[in-house]
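Progress note, project year one: complex with heme C.
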Amino acid sequence: VNSKRIFNSFVGAALAAALIEIILGLVLLPKYRPTAEEAYGSVKALHASPLTAAFANIHHSLSAVLIVFAIATVLQGLLSGAYRFTSKKLWVGASVAAVLFFLFQLTGHLLPWDQHAVRTAAVETGIAQGAPVLGTYQANLLRGGQQVGPQTLSFWFWAHVVVLTALLVTGGIVLVRKIRATGYSPGLISGLFLAICCVGVLLGLLVPVQYGPAALLSDYGNYDAKPEWYILPMHSLLNVFQSMDPSFGFIGSMVIPALVLLLVVLAPWLGKAEAPKKPLYGIVLTLLLCIGTGALSAISYRNLAAPAGPNVAIEAAPRAQVTPLDPVLVARGRALFDQEGCTDCHAVHGSGGHAGPVLDNTGTRHPDLVWQSAHLQNPHALVPSSTMPTFARLGSQKIQALAEYLVSLK
Ligand code: HEC
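Model obtained:
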């Protein structure tokens, strides 16, 4: 059937482009230093020479193009009904390859070790910590410790360069065999491959990578980072579920994405019973995916772009008001801090979760009671990228007590 050959060719083109990406990575590898002291400098040095800068920029943009193309491949396969005709192994393999591209992107983002990279890793591993039972274990494993630090860099570097690459290469070889055995169109493969590469090269040359300042020690526990475009839908989902209950965050960040992935991977089995002519399962799933991710990304994007509104005034207000703290309120705030689930996400004096920053010196960073209470009522108005749920429901008295306690943490 034709849809099968078209789908197989899409997968073939994606794998060919992934090979280019691996080659570019190998060219850059000898110049890169995977340590916290040297990583940023080595990346800057790469960008100092026009040739290696071009390679680095193309490596960066091609990876984004690959993610988009992998999603397009899967959607195309769903819409055309190819999932019913192509080999099941090939279908599953192609979906897994799309996930691999995504993991390459996540791990690769940390390698330049700039501010945004490190803060993003703090947010991501903090989110991983939100899972029940295994959360802390898996987050500490991903970070290589309680907090993001130099060890996280070397770990993600090896994952990027060795583990993920080895998986992609071995998986790729199996898939290429399957493609050859089940039929493809050489013309379509080369056409798509050229198109991907052209877009990747053009983007790389026209939109070079932007790095922030080098990461400092203080960024290891800083969670103020705007999510990258490929994370937006999950960022929204996380916020939606966290606002129902702080401990529900993992449903949005892990359970739902995993379920969606399962629905895609299992399409050959789940769509088996449908009428032979129309790939109804694929069409419905595509619609749901497009509408769902579109809407979620839009919400997230709008939230992030939204001006902070009246609270801007609070940020700008002089920090002079040194109101003496009320010890009774501080004590009450400390008790509320435990009762209201703040410790799920925040550590104070060494105990507590790490989905949010350590609060040992939040009182120094934000000595203003007004800031603290405004932040509790609407975190995202003050910190646009915030994934902290709002606590407006606690009411002004409890908020006031919590704010007093927070300001006392110096
Ligand atoms: C689901 C996780 C989560 C829960 C629950 C949570 N927070 Fe947060 N919190 C975060 C994240 C993520 C940030 C970083 C983004 C930001 O500043 O809004 C943060 C930031 C903060 C900050 C700013 C820290 C600084 O110094 O910049 C304070 C203060 C804070 N939270 C207090 C609280 C209090 C008090 C509670 C309980 C009423 C609470 N948080 C509950 C996730 C959480």
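Residues 223-224, 242, 246, 249, 337, 340-342, 344-346, 355-357, 359, 362, 365-366, 372, 375-376, 379, 383, 386-389, 391, 402, 406 surround heme C (CB under 6 Å).
Confidence is low (pLDDT under 50) at residues 307-320.
No further modelling is planned for this target in the current period.
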